[in-house]
Specification:
Number of strands of chain A: 10
Structural class of chain B: mainly alpha
Number of strands of chain B: 4
Oligomer: heterodimer
Radius of gyration of chain A: 18 Å
Largest sheet of chain B: 2 strands, antiparallel
Number of helices of chain A: 9
Radius of gyration of chain B: 20 Å
Largest interface: A-B, 35 and 28 residues
Shape of chain B: globular
Structural class of chain A: alpha/beta
Number of helices of chain B: 14
Chain lengths: ~250, ~325
């Protein structure tokens, strides 16, 4: 198996709070990795450190052998790492289609082009294809702000997906989504991402979602990776369940 | 741009061209001033669409006017089109330098820095008396148009058509910009900077390019004002001039690239009449008008155009 992301001794403290303490993990091409842990365990911080939103106090992060430390989020993204957020980060005033068109233009390095139209036929066609894959084609002309929460989550991930990433980091893809929508959202996502062979790391608080969709699970507690393995084994381990309060 | 929009734009252009031939000279003068200021207001609107409010666009307005003035007076360049290019490029060059600093800031910090740069430039214009003429300013002789000298009696009309031509070309270019990836990137920056960065886009680059482009519009407006008035002075760079641009931008609204031009022309006419009938309280009249707009048309006067279009679009759908 080929490593795609290598994290070594990643450390980050916010004053007295430990957000990451000597984290070591290697993620391999094609894996679908879930990250779980209680609130404040450092799950989102891990994503922020990998994508350059935060600079770690120590440690290294390598993507396909390239050091990511010191790069800004736009530079990390340009290397092929997409990200979605716990609270969807959309262009609320633009239509759903325009959101994806902007993502595609930026992915092609055409974000600074002021002569050609954003709505070039080939780009619109591609955007509509992406929306169809995420089940959003019926909402193309609606303002993004008007989408239901499940739709907003899907659009947020569709924007990251439009960049054709090799590695996708998703922060709580089902948070805020109703119980009825949750598995439908995940089914759609997993089908698209597996079909496109996108290596995925997702932070999730819902154990059932992790059990059902992850190939591998990392358990974080107080900024440390306390377990790493198959969900079927890890999530049944009473030690792990005890270590992370509230699961028992 | 569909055929209908092109048609409407052409009709409006021809209407304005016709008005120039029939309206009294003083109205033509006001219209020309309105169009020239409209370009500067359009630049404010461009920045507003990117989420930035500039209180210092007058800097580029004055830079354009002074660059053209120096080229005319000192370098002996008389051709109007070359002077327009000099004014616009000087403003853009200045913005390219200032933009390196100012585009790192947002919100009130951007607004205050823009004001500070503008006032610093005002200070230079006032103090460098030997070069700029200080507060007295500089007289601007009439330019030539396509190497042909303009007779004194024809100057207002020629300048009007020059301004109209510039506005038409700039409206076309800005409309293209608004529908381009860069135009959308600027709107995206206003909506969500974090997402722009996580799409691999450079927030600062989008703002920087928009800032430089907006300065070019201001510079062009400044040259046209210099031609129209025949005189330039540091007041062009004063904060009240920048404030006036913001005022007119809010008056018209930011939803269309045509709104700033319409509102700038209207503003010149209102100001002129307010000054004529209420010479001591004309600012109060303008203030009251602004209050009415804020309370009843918070999206600016262009809301009226949008409201008028909406039922028609509905009928088209139904029909």
């Amino acid at each position: 198996m080929t490593p795609i992301l290598e994290v070594e001794n990643l450390t980050m403290h916010f004053g007295m709070i430990t957000a990451a303490e000597s984290e070591n993990v290697t993620v391999y091409e094609g894996e679908f990795v879930g990250i779980v842990g209680p609130n404040g365990a450092g799950k989102t911080t891990f994503l922020n450190l990998v994508t350059g939103y935060l600079r770690p106090q120590a440690g290294r992060v390598r993507f396909r052998g390239r050091d990511l430390i010191g790069l800004h989020p736009n530079q990390v993204t340009a290397l092929g790492i997409g990200r979605s957020f716990q609270i969807p980060q959309l262009f609320a005033g633009l239509s759903v289609l325009e959101n994806v068109l902007v993502a595609l233009a930026m992915a092609d390095g055409r974000g600074g082009d002021f002569w050609r139209r954003l709505h070039e036929p080939a780009r619109v066609e591609e955007a509509q294809r992406i929306l169809a894959r995420f089940g959003l084609n019926g909402h193309a002309s609606r303002p993004a702000a008007e989408l239901p929460e499940g739709g907003r989550k899907l659009l947020d991930i569709a924007l990251a997906f439009a960049l054709k990433p090799s590695l996708l980091l998703m922060d709580e893809p089902t948070s805020g989504v109703s119980a009825a929508e949750k598995f439908a959202v995940m089914d759609t996502l997993v089908a698209v991402l597996r079909e496109s062979r996108v290596t995925t790391i997702f932070v999730e608080h819902d154990m059932e979602v992790v059990r059902r969709y992850a190939d591998r699970v990392l358990v974080l507690s107080n900024g440390q990776i306390i377990a790493d393995g198959s969900p079927a084994v890890i999530l049944e381990d009473p030690e792990i369940r005890r270590a992370v309060a509230g699961w028992g | 741009m569909n055929r209908k929009t092109w048609g409407a734009a052409l009709v409006i252009l021809l209407l304005f061209a016709g008005l120039g031939a029939v309206l009294p000279s003083w109205v033509v003068f006001l219209l020309t001033l309105g169009l020239a200021k409209g370009l500067a207001v359009l630049s404010v609107v461009l920045l507003m669409r990117a989420g930035l409010v500039s209180f210092g666009q007058a800097l580029f307005y004055a830079a354009g006017a002074y660059a053209a003035g120096f080229a005319l007076r000192r370098a002996g360049i008389h051709e109007a089109f070359i002077l327009l290019a000099i004014g616009a490029l000087t403003a853009m060059g200045l913005a390219a330098l200032i933009g390196l600093i100012i585009t790192r800031y947002r919100e009130i910090f951007f607004g205050m820095l823009s004001l500070a740069f503008s006032m610093a430039f005002y200070g230079v214009l006032v103090k460098a008396y030997d070069i700029t003429g200080g507060t007295d300013g500089i007289g601007i002789p009439p330019p030539t148009v396509l190497t042909m000298p303009v007779a004194a009696g024809q100057l207002r009309l020629v300048t009007y058509y020059l301004a109209l031509g510039c506005v038409a070309v700039m409206l076309y270019l800005i409309r293209r910009y608004a529908h381009s990836p860069l135009g959308y990137a600027a709107r995206a920056v206003r909506e969500n900077e974090v997402r722009v960065a996580y799409l691999g886009g450079s927030v600062q680059r989008a703002i920087y390019l928009t800032y430089v482009l907006a300065a070019g519009l201001c510079g062009l407006g400044g040259v046209l004002v210099a031609f129209t008035v025949g005189h330039i002075d540091p007041q062009l760079s004063y904060w009240t001039t920048s404030g006036e641009f913001v005022f007119v931008a809010l008056l018209g609204g930011t939803s269309s690239v045509a709104a700033p031009l319409g509102s700038a022309v209207l503003y010149e006419l209102i100001k002129s009449y307010a000054f004529k009938y209420a010479p001591y309280t004309w600012q109060m009249v303008l203030g009251l008008i602004m209050l009415v707009i804020i309370f009843f048309l918070p999206g600016g006067l262009w809301t009226l155009v949008e409201r008028a279009q909406r039922p028609r679009q509905g009928q088209e759908v139904r029909g």
